[in-house]
Design goal:
The protein is an alpha/beta fold. The protein is 38% helix and 17% strand. The protein is flat, with a radius of gyration of 21 Å.
């Protein structure tokens, strides 16, 4: 089906449109692979600080495979092996890990690492950093920790209107990678109005997968009566996809799996668009599609808005260990 084709109910009944791109991004694939490979090649136990990615099903699967999830480094026994999640950690966490002589495997998404390096660069140049994001999100906590004395978190346009910096000529902004493009644009515009000299990162911080999934949602939001986004409640990028659709006037809901769907949502609906956040596994999408068939949504079609082929390599140390294991050394 071409992009301009109407999604109105066809002669064969109600339909589900599966939106692509959806689901795992390269950073999530890398992080999950890190845990699975570590469990395979290293002696147990293997600890993981925080949720490796923000999806309950993924965490439960890895826990069942043997990973031990902890909230903080001090829960990990001295000299044990620990994996840092895709969201990154602050230098303080790294120092604590070193003091406890932990064997660290860093699964931080390379795009988050890029953001950390930007924060360090701006801080060393004497800039005040305005970090656009959600204060309690693991990624923001880690990025803020790179230069806490010069970083302020800005979460809303109202905060952008009131934030103060020592020198308006030396101020920059960075953004959490999983934010809404539209929401972020509004905050940046306010900051640019108040601080004409403000600088941003060389390339936008919002990651390719977040942008692609939001653009795909926009492409179909007005052509359906309902959008279901598969993702956990603590997944920032999944929540932003729901908001993007709702802001265009189409009902949208975030569902952890098919059990969250309420039958009343489907009343009067002929076309449901189904997509998934960047940390949601594809098997949950397929379970949702099968569940919708029970309500008469028997026609399923794919709609690709943008092709993705991004891949991230494993952390160097893990890559080497895996290679040695595979050749029997």
């Amino acid at each position: 089906m071409s992009l301009g084709t109407s999604l109105d109910e066809g002669p064969s009944g109600k339909r589900v449109v599966l939106l692509t791109p959806r689901g795992f991004c390269a950073g999530v694939v890398r992080a999950i692979d890190v845990v699975k490979i570590a469990l395979e090649i290293f002696d147990r136990p293997i600890y993981v600080r925080k949720e490796i990615v923000h999806n309950r099903h993924v965490v439960e699967e890895l826990r069942a495979a043997g990973a031990i999830f902890v909230e903080e480094i001090d829960e990990v026994p001295s000299k044990a092996r620990v994996i840092f999640s895709a969201h990154g950690v602050s230098p303080e966490v790294r120092r604590n890990a070193k003091e406890r002589q932990l064997e660290v495997i860093d699964a931080t998404c390379p795009l988050v690492t890029k953001e950390h390096l930007e924060a360090l660069r701006f801080a060393r140049q004497g800039f005040s950093i305005l970090l656009i994001g959600h204060r309690e999100h693991d990624e923001v906590i880690g990025t803020e920790g790179e230069a806490p004395s010069v970083t302020q978190v800005v979460s809303t346009e109202e905060e952008a209107d009131t934030v103060q910096v020592p020198d308006p000529q030396r101020v920059c902004y960075l953004t959490q990678t999983t934010l809404s493009l539209d929401e972020t644009a509004g905050i940046i515009a306010r900051l640019q109005s108040r601080f004409p000299a403000i600088q941003g990162p060389p390339a936008q911080d919002i990651c390719y997968a977040t942008e692609n999934r939001q653009q795909a949602v926009k492409a179909l939001a007005r052509e359906c009566q309902l959008m279901l986004v598969v993702g956990s409640q603590n997944s920032s990028n999944s929540r932003r996809m729901v908001e993007v659709c709702q802001n265009l006037g189409t009902p949208a809901y975030l569902v952890d799996d098919e059990r969250d769907v309420e039958e009343k949502w489907l009343e009067g609906v002929s076309t449901v668009v189904v997509t998934a956040g960047a940390s949601a596994p594809e098997n949950l999408v397929q379970r949702l599609v099968q569940s919708l068939a029970q309500f008469g949504f028997s026609n399923v079609e794919e709609r690709e808005i943008k092709h993705e082929d991004v891949r991230f390599s494993l952390p160097a140390g893990l890559q080497q260990a895996a290679r040695l294991t595979q050749i029997g050394i």
